[in-house]
Design brief:
Blueprint (H helix, E strand, L loop, with lengths): L1 H18 L6 H4 L3 H16 L25 E7 L5 E7 L7 E7 L11 E3 L10 E2 L3 E5 L5 E6 L1 E2 L8 E6 L13 E4 L8 E2 L5 E7 L20 E7 L7 E6 L4 E10 L5 E7 L2 E7 L10 E2 L11 E4 L5 E6 L10 E8 L7 E10 L1 E8 L5 E7 L6 E7 L1 H6 L8 E7 L6
Antiparallel strand pairs: 1-2, 2-3, 3-4, 5-8, 6-7, 7-9, 9-10, 11-12, 12-13, 13-14, 15-16, 16-17, 17-18, 19-20, 20-21, 21-22, 23-24, 24-25, 25-26
């Protein structure tokens, strides 16, 4: 109330000055440096509110967003519908405030891909700065609906951002229909929800522990208690989501956390940090979490990884490095399996040995086939690629299944760089 009273006095002074015909700068002469700073932050908060305006899904993006108009490629995610169609999503524009989403489909198991079918681009020339769509994922829920989850923020990160979701009930049709995006909460989501044995859906949402970039820093101090690797839960098939718990990691770096449910019912969270992959465990459904520790024996660079429970009961891990306990930066993308909930890992199938490969995400088909998407040399080649393989391939350390294939091209931008 005291802070409100100060602001009321300031605004009343500004208003009275305006009515007296005083110059615009006069209103600031009576303000203390602290009041000036609060005024600046208030302006930045109002600019950040532009990211609260519901985004529009462009379902007729051609020719404006055809491949000859695109010049960048960073993978977001991959999903498979109940009818067998693959949906791939990636970032165009840059890993920057220029970012926007592009989606394409494949109806022949990834052999060929459509031109862009859906674009989420929130930029507008009338805005004072870029409004970006930078991270998210695509996910097929147990009912067969495809979810497009994405963030919207002013600039790279305005200190609040926001997770939005649109749902498609007919993802296999010639003309898929998407719901209007709705905002779930602040922050960003980069990885798929986890369906728990209880039937609940658990969505990882990161509210970055950094308070915003550039002029937005400090604009949303009221959110500081909620900053970290949050988990949200839905008990009604995604109709609503409730915040359940949060982990604050040392040296955070976007979190990019993923959650798997162990056989004993506990939840295992792995997150990206400046120290590599770190872990935390919950034994009460995600309400409280253990202090973070290094996720030994996994060694990984500061980059996205992928972990998921498979139908066989094994855990699949996609990481960088030819060995589970070593890496050489963002190169040598490999696949590993664990039969004991992550204590030991086997296999080491090399998906792509080159440098500049990163950001794996994927899905498993009902027949057990695994699909992993990733990107290569985002700012130059801009390739979005896919690996199609099986658990047998991983355990053998080479392709032994007839349908398996590596380095399958999803998209490549052809615009001027």
């Amino acid at each position: 109330m005291k802070k409100f009273g100060v602001w009321l006095c300031v605004f009343m002074a500004m208003a009275s000055g305006t009515m007296r015909g005083e110059s615009p700068e006069t209103k600031f002469e009576a303000m203390t440096p602290q009041q000036v700073r609060q005024y600046e932050l208030d302006v930045m908060r109002r600019i950040a509110d532009l990211a609260l305006i519901p985004p529009t899904l462009n379902t007729s993006p051609l020719p404006q967003y055809d491949y000859d108009k695109l010049d960048y490629g960073m993978t977001i995610g991959l999903t498979r519908t109940h009818g067998g169609r693959l949906w791939a999503c990636w970032v165009a524009g840059g890993d920057s405030p220029k970012a926007f989403f592009v989606l394409a489909t494949s109806d022949d198991d990834g052999e060929t891909w459509s031109k862009p079918r859906l674009v989420v681009d929130s930029h507008a020339k009338r805005l004072p700065m870029d409004r970006s769509v930078l991270v998210g994922n695509v996910w097929t829920d147990p009912r067969g609906r495809v979810w497009l989850i994405f963030d919207q923020s002013m600039g790279m990160f305005d200190g609040r951002a926001g997770v939005w979701a649109a749902v498609c009930d007919n993802p296999d049709d010639d003309e898929p229909h998407w719901s209007k995006p709705r905002r779930i909460w602040h922050g960003v989501t980069l990885n798929k929800p986890t369906v728990l044995s209880s039937g609940e859906w658990m969505l990882p949402i990161s509210l970055d522990q950094r308070k915003g970039f550039g002029p937005f820093k400090g604009a949303f101090d009221d959110l500081d208690p909620y900053r970290g690797a949050n988990v949200f839960v839905s008990t009604d098939a995604g109709a609503s989501w409730q915040r359940r718990g949060c982990v604050q990691y040392p040296n955070p770096d976007w979190h990019e956390h993923m959650i798997v449910e162990r056989r004993d019912g506990s939840l295992w969270m792995l997150a990206r940090t400046g120290r590599g992959v770190m872990q935390s465990t919950s034994t009460d459904g995600g309400r409280t979490w253990s202090p973070p520790t290094d996720a030994a024996p996994i060694k990984h660079p500061v980059a996205r990884f992928f972990i998921r429970r498979l139908a066989s009961g094994r855990l699949l891990l996609i990481k960088h490095g030819q060995h589970i306990d070593a890496h050489e930066g963002r190169s040598k993308l490999t696949a590993w399996l664990s039969d004991d909930d992550g204590k030991t890992w086997h296999g080491g199938l090399m998906l792509d040995e080159r440098t500049g490969v990163s950001y794996p995400d994927g899905i498993q088909a009902p027949d057990g086939t695994l699909y992993i998407s990733y990107d290569r040399n985002r700012a130059t080649d801009g390739e979005i690629l896919m690996a199609r393989f099986t658990e047998a391939d991983v355990l053998a350390g080479k392709l032994v299944s007839d349908s398996s294939k590596l380095k399958m091209l999803i998209s490549r931008p052809r615009g001027k760089r």
